[in-house]
Each structure stands twice: as structure tokens, then as C-alpha cells.
Design brief:
Two copies of one chain form a homodimer. The first copy, chain A, is α+β, with helices and mostly antiparallel strands. The first copy, chain A, is built from five helices and six strands; from the N terminus they run H-H-H-H-E-E-E-E-E-E-H. Chain A folds into two domains: 87 residues, Winged helix-like DNA-binding domain superfamily/Winged helix DNA-binding domain (Arc Repressor Mutant, subunit A, Orthogonal Bundle), CATH 1.10.10.10; 57 residues, Dna Ligase, domain 1 (2-Layer Sandwich), CATH 3.30.1490. The first copy, chain A, is 38% helix and 21% strand. In chain A, a hairpin with a 2-residue loop joins strand 5 and strand 6. In chain A, helix 3 packs across helix 4. The termini of chain A are far apart. The structure holds manganese (II) ion (2 copies) and zinc ion (ZN) (2 copies). Chain A binds a DNA duplex through helix 4.
DNA sequence: TATTAAATCTGTAATGATTACAAATATGAA
DNA sequence: TTCATATTTGTAATCATTACAGATTTAATA
């Protein structure tokens, strides 16, 4: 995993996004934290290093990156948006207990569908996720 | 589709929920509006018939029905929860343009998975949905 | 029937995530 | 430098949801 500033910079340039310092830091954060973080998590760490960072900038940047296809928004918790640097269609597991979101490695059956429509609706994205109790939380339960 | 008050009443009783008038009306609404409505939509119609209806009661009742397994919460828009009277695991289509959520009839490949775990995580729910432009919105686009 | 405790409903306030917006700052060309 | 544009920042507003306390209803008991 290459996550130095140079790589992140060229990644933004390739997508036609001006690589400002704030944007570089936010994108770098996403590369280094693959747990599908919230805006809050991103902001809380960056404000330590960049005391002038505004939460609005985090929101603005994530929206921009999302629109340009650099990151994906995950909306499965119902309370807040989670962000994913992995833009390839893949499935997730949401733990009902701790709220963690894991990537799961299942081959999506619809991924290579020949037709990009269903019941007349034009399909642009395919999402799949599981909900339950994660490995860690199961272990905790058993140790009680 | 049977959606008279008697049916709705016995449905609540079977689940051990006291069938109050407000609960009956909310559940009846869900039976008659299969478009995965929001709290707002439910409240806006019921307040016409029952001027004393409180939005808090709508929230409370939907939470109760959800906990008792009478309805399902759908959290795919990222902005508000949508409610589904159909509790059997099925897939959805969310239109990016008009926001409508449709049921789609695809056989879920994970539905009859023999193992109820994945990567050590205990699976309790399986969710799948597509995003794109719905049939209606496609037609509108073409007529411009 | 009257009493009373528990359950339910209601209205308002609080919360938390997100967006709107305008002023401040940085950037980059002329 | 000058000036227009893009970006960032801080604050206020919005919107969905939850917390909470008082009012009302229900149902059991005397
Ligand atoms: Mn992921
Ligand atoms: Mn449905
Ligand atoms: Zn967990
Ligand atoms: Zn549509």
C-alpha cells in the first residue's frame, strides 16, 4: 500500500482535482484508515496535525472526492455516512454491536450481469451488505 | 392484499403488541403504501385523519414494530429511514433522481447460504440494493 | 363504580449530522 | 503588483431523530 504524499498528489491530479494541502491530508487519511471512517473520525485526527482544518472542508472535500469517483460513500448505518477509499464494487459487514464496517470477500453475483437494467431501471451501482455480530464482539461475548 | 383494521389488529396481537388506534392506523398505512415511505409521509397523511397524532408516536410505533419484526427499516438513502412492511429478505432499487425505492425481484444468492457466518462474523441480515435511474425517470429524460 | 398503577400518547426541547452561506485566505494569471 | 478565481474557514441554519416530562388512556383491583 503506497500512501505517501507524492502518490496521493498524483492521484488527485489524475482526476483533475487541484491537490491542496487539506485535500492531500484527507485523501492520505483515507488510504491509511481502511475502516470506513466517519467525517468525525477524519476531522478529529486531522485537527491535531492541522489546527486550522475546518470540518466544513472535510465535508466539502469528501463530497468532491466522491463526485470525482475517488472514494465511495457508504450509507448503511442510517446515522452517518462512512467513507471508503476502495471504489471497486465490494460487499460489507456491519456489526450491530460495535458499529464497525468490514469488507467481506464474496463474489457479487450481479457484478458481471450482462444487462445493466432491471425491471426497466438503469443500474449504475450495486451494493450488498450483511448485518450481525462481528468476530471481535463474538469473542467478547464468550469471555463474559 | 388484506388491509382492513381487523386483519391489522390480529397481526399486532399475534406479535404481542397491544393494538392501539394509533398503531393500527400506522400499520394499516404501511400495508396500503408499499413505496417504502418515510416518517414524514406517514405522519402527513395520518395527521389529516387523526388530528391529535404526534410525530413522536409515529417514531415510537415504527421502532416498536421494527423491534418486533413486523416491519423493516431501510437505510440506503443516507438521509432518512424508509419503512418496509415486507419483512422477507429482498432487494431494492433506489432512484438517484426521484428518490423512489422499488422492490426488485432477484433471487438473493446468499439467501440459502448454509453457513450463517462470514470471515468469523455472525450473519443476521442480508441486504442488497441497486442504485441508478428508475424507469419513470428514464422516460421523462427521453421526452425532453 | 371509584381508585389507582401502568402503559401509551403528546408536545417540546435537545441532539447530531449535514448543508448554506458569507467572509477570509490562498492561488495564479496578467 | 493587481485582480479575478478557487479554496478554506467559522458560524448559522436545516433536517431527521431522540430524550423527556406531563397528559391521557387503559385495565386491574377494591
Ligand atoms: Mn469497503
Ligand atoms: Mn421492499
Ligand atoms: Zn462488533
Ligand atoms: Zn426515478
Amino acid at each position: 500500500m503506497i500512501t505517501n504524499m507524492k502518490h496521493v498528489k498524483s492521484e488527485l491530479e489524475q482526476k483533475g482535482i487541484k491537490p491542496t494541502y487539506q485535500r492531500l491530508c484527507i485523501l492520505e487519511y483515507l488510504h491509511e484508515h481502511l475502516v470506513h471512517p466517519t467525517v468525525e473520525m477524519i476531522y478529529d485526527e486531522l485537527i491535531e496535525r492541522i489546527p486550522t482544518m475546518s470540518k466544513t472542508t472535510v465535508y466539502n472535500t469528501l463530497k468532491l472526492l466522491s463526485e470525482k469517483g475517488v472514494i465511495n460513500e457508504i450509507t448503511i448505518t442510517g446515522t452517518e455516512v462512512r467513507y471508503d477509499i476502495n471504489c471497486q464494487s465490494h460487499h460489507h459487514f456491519l456489526c450491530k454491536k460495535c458499529g464497525k464496517i468490514y469488507d467481506v470477500d464474496v463474489t457479487c453475483p450481479f457484478a458481471n450481469m450482462d444487462h445493466k437494467e432491471i425491471s426497466g431501471h438503469e443500474i449504475q451501482e450495486i451494493h450488498g451488505y450483511f448485518k450481525g455480530i462481528c468476530k471481535e464482539c463474538l469473542i467478547k461475548q464468550n469471555n463474559e
